From TrEMBL:
<keyword id="KW-0325">Glycoprotein</keyword>
<dbReference type="InterPro" id="IPR001611">
    <property type="entry name" value="Leu-rich_rpt"/>
</dbReference>
<dbReference type="GO" id="GO:0044224">
    <property type="term" value="C:juxtaparanode region of axon"/>
</dbReference>
<dbReference type="InterPro" id="IPR011041">
    <property type="entry name" value="Quinoprot_gluc/sorb_DH_b-prop"/>
</dbReference>
<dbReference type="InterPro" id="IPR003591">
    <property type="entry name" value="Leu-rich_rpt_typical-subtyp"/>
</dbReference>
<keyword id="KW-0732">Signal</keyword>
<feature type="repeat" description="EAR">
    <location>
        <begin position="455"/>
        <end position="497"/>
    </location>
</feature>
<dbReference type="InterPro" id="IPR005492">
    <property type="entry name" value="EPTP"/>
</dbReference>
<dbReference type="Pfam" id="PF13855">
    <property type="entry name" value="LRR_8"/>
</dbReference>
<feature type="repeat" description="EAR">
    <location>
        <begin position="268"/>
        <end position="310"/>
    </location>
</feature>
<dbReference type="GO" id="GO:0008021">
    <property type="term" value="C:synaptic vesicle"/>
</dbReference>
<dbReference type="Pfam" id="PF03736">
    <property type="entry name" value="EPTP"/>
</dbReference>
<keyword id="KW-0677">Repeat</keyword>
<dbReference type="InterPro" id="IPR032675">
    <property type="entry name" value="LRR_dom_sf"/>
</dbReference>
<feature type="signal peptide">
    <location>
        <begin position="1"/>
        <end position="30"/>
    </location>
</feature>
<dbReference type="GO" id="GO:0017157">
    <property type="term" value="P:regulation of exocytosis"/>
</dbReference>
<feature type="repeat" description="EAR">
    <location>
        <begin position="363"/>
        <end position="406"/>
    </location>
</feature>
Length: 548
């Protein structure tokens, strides 16, 4: 027992000394100064602040507790996506007096606690609408003294509690891209220092907050390629039958009149049927008393009228058109006068005659020979002021105007359009109370003429070498003129109401168009351009808000 006590003595002392040593070590450790947080060489840091000068990038090895960061005279120009995501507690960020030109879409992602953001005296020329995404706590934002000329729409939408905004010192271009800002300034609760326009000249030095919204004309239009029909065609005629929308195309290369049907689900033109026509130049659909007929005009082999049989769901030949009278048809025009249906055929041969046919009970019958021994190229029916007229254009003489005589039940020659010695195509339109003629010419300028009560006067000449087709048309409140050429691209003109003239609007890459056709299809407004040498193109008319 004594020996056991003797052994325990040293062991107990060792245990006590060890415990005392550990206690003294803890005491010494408690008296050491705190470890200095990491700080890049270009920065001065405390536990929760960092001030950096001449940094080559956003410093990564900063204390995670930093709530305030200042970058001055940085040696980089772009703030990339997620540049500050490693500092999630950041509340104050000052990026003044640098050479920043670009800020990434999500440069400030992860900074949900940031309240103050100053990006002044830089060279920033553009921002993304997502630049400030995720800054839900931001109350103060300054972009003063940069090179901003515009701001993307709704750039400040993510900043729910923004109270102060400074945009002074930027050369804002007060065009349609700034219209949204004018609207936002009128309704926001954010305090915004006065900002001024640098351009355009009419708004220079005007306060943005005071710009009247009515001064911004920001709605424009465009024709965009919508569908390509992989075949040439020389005429296009849309029509409605049994509540469906169709399109008849003359395709001499395919020896057919092709009928397409509009698919309202797929919103495309689809193949529907074909009528044999080895040399078709025009396929004119007519719906008479609920029955569908298609007049097929051909250069060779005679011209015919086909009838759609809903029982057999096919076209059958109804009758021939007199080949002695109509030898070389070039155009067809269908119309009604006093309840009667007519169609007229423009004949371009010297031996034939431009002729009028009238529907009677079960067929179309020859009614009148209008214009013999001339190379007629186009027809246009005009029903204005209760006086139906038919205008016949010719490649060998001035266009002739015929007026319907209700006494004789025939067209009577009324005069010529002497301002134009020849014309390939003739179309008309009304603008306000005035009536106009559009005449295309293959050699020489095409003409726009206005009816002055007793005669036409020239309003405008349009360069159009090689033109065989033109078409004025109205889409909504926008009036256009499509003018084709065999030697250059198609020109789209838009009517200027103030100047009462067409102004060049857009160029379409259509090769050798032979017609233009406007076709509303549901909510799609389409312009068809049948081409003799290439594909038939379908363009869609779109409205563009430049302030969006």
């Amino acid at each position: 027992m004594a020996r056991l006590r003797a052994r325990r003595g040293p062991m107990c002392r060792l245990l006590v000394l060890s415990t005392l040593g550990f206690y003294l070590m803890l005491q010494a450790s408690a008296k050491r100064p705190p470890k200095t947080p990491p700080c890049p060489p270009s920065c001065s840091c405390t536990r929760d602040t960092a001030f950096c000068v001449d940094s080559k990038s956003v410093p990564k090895n900063l204390p995670s507790e930093v709530i305030s960061l200042t970058l001055v005279n940085a040696a980089f120009s772009e703030i990339q996506d997620g540049a500050f995501s490693h500092l999630p507690l950041l509340q104050f960020l000052l990026l003044n007096s640098n050479k920043f030109t670009l800020i990434g879409d999500n440069a400030f992602t992860g900074l949900s606690h940031l309240q103050y953001l100053f990006i002044e005296n830089n060279d920033i020329w553009g921002l993304s609408k997502f630049t400030f995404r995720g800054l839900k706590s931001l109350t103060h934002l300054s972009l003063a003294n940069n090179n901003l000329q515009t701001l993307p729409r709704d750039i400040f939408r993510p900043l729910d509690i923004l109270s102060d905004l400074d945009l002074r010192g930027n050369a804002l271009n007060c065009d349609c891209k700034v219209k949204w800002l004018v609207e936002w300034l009128a309704h926001t609760n954010t305090t915004v220092a006065p900002i001024y326009c640098a351009s355009p000249p009419r708004f220079q030095e005007h306060k943005v907050q005071d710009l009247p919204l009515r001064e911004f004309d920001c709605i424009t239009t465009d024709f965009v390629l919508y569908q390509t029909l992989s075949f040439p065609a020389v005429s296009a005629e849309p029509f409605l039958y049994s509540s469906d929308l169709y399109l008849a195309l003359a395709q001499p290369g395919a020896s057919a009149c092709t009928i397409l049907k509009w698919d309202y689900v797929e919103r495309q033109l689809r193949d529907y049927d074909r009528i044999p026509a080895p040399s078709a130049v025009h396929c004119k659909p007519m719906v008479v008393d609920g029955q569908l007929y298609v007049v097929v005009a051909q250069l060779f082999g005679g011209s015919y009228i086909y009838h759609w049989d809903p029982n057999t769901t096919r076209f059958t030949k109804l009758q021939d058109i007199d080949p002695q009278r109509v030898r070389k048809p070039n155009d067809l025009e269908a119309f009604r006068i006093d309840g009667d249906w007519f169609f007229a055929v423009a004949d371009s041969s010297k031996a034939g005659a431009t002729s009028l046919y009238r529907w009677h009970q079960n067929g179309f019958y020859s009614h009148q020979a209008l214009h013999a021994w001339h190379r007629d190229t186009d027809l246009e029916f005009v029903d204005g002021e209760g006086k139906p007229r038919l205008i016949v254009s010719s490649s060998s003489q001035a266009p002739v105007i015929y007026q319907w005589s209700r006494t004789q039940k025939q067209f009577v020659a009324q005069g010529e359009v002497t301002q134009v010695p020849d014309a390939q195509a003739v179309k008309h339109f009304r603008a306000g109370r005035d009536s106009y003629l559009c005449l295309s010419r293959y050699i020489g300028d095409s003409k726009i003429l206005r009816w002055e009560g007793t005669r036409f006067s020239e309003v405008q000449a349009l360069p159009s070498r090689g033109s065989l087709a033109l078409q004025p048309f109205l889409v909504g409140g926008h009036r256009y003129l499509a003018l084709g050429s065999d030697f250059s691209f198609t020109q789209i003109y838009q009517w200027d109401e103030g100047r009462q003239k067409f102004v060049r609007f857009q160029e379409l890459a259509v090769q050798a168009p032979r017609a233009f056709c406007y076709m509303p299809a549901g909510d799609a407004q389409l312009l068809l351009a049948p081409s003799f040498k290439g594909q038939t193109l379908v363009y869609r008319h779109v409205v563009v808000d430049l302030s969006a």
